[in-house]
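Much of the work behind modern protein science is quiet bookkeeping, done one molecule at a time. The protein below has been through that process, and both of its lines are reproduced in full.


***
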Amino acid sequence: MESKILEGTTTIGLVCSDGVVFVTDKRASWGGFIASKNARKSFNINDEVGATVAGSVGDAESLMRLIQAEAKLFEMNNGEKMNSEAVSVLMANILQGNKIFPYLVQLIIAGYHRGESKLYTLDPVGGLIEEKMASTGSGSPMAYGVLDLEYSENKTVKENIPVALKALKSALSRDSHTGDGMELATITKDGFRLYKEEEVKSLLGSN
């Protein structure tokens, strides 16, 4: 039976002058049924690289466990962390190698390494594109409407967080498969940070 978990969702990734921003909704849907109101869609791969996922829950979680393990092995063997480009290329190879029975996912992988921010999008069969901003899922057309007007790669993480939240808020208001709150994460020189729910509410209230 075809998996419909996370059939609709919205995830956003932004390159900033001093890091990257991720924001996602929390709704997991199974057709017209809301299967979960607290689905996790952003992941910490290492302190310098993170990812967002849209698609099948099982496929997404399996891929994240795999890439997290590969990143740890790389760090143990080489004494340094995998950067976002290396993680993205490895993930693209994994997806391409499974194209006969593909992982049903859309990925955004981004990171901040040695003062440089990078972001990549990946499709289910390993297509890899470097971007400055990206949104995936059924609510992405609404999100892009805001991002095209207000996002700038020259803005700081602090300046782009309200832009990302506003873009997701637009998707929340118009896409029935996007909902149940927001998850915000950033990567800067201080590493990966997942914001608490009350922090996100405070940021939304200040907009």
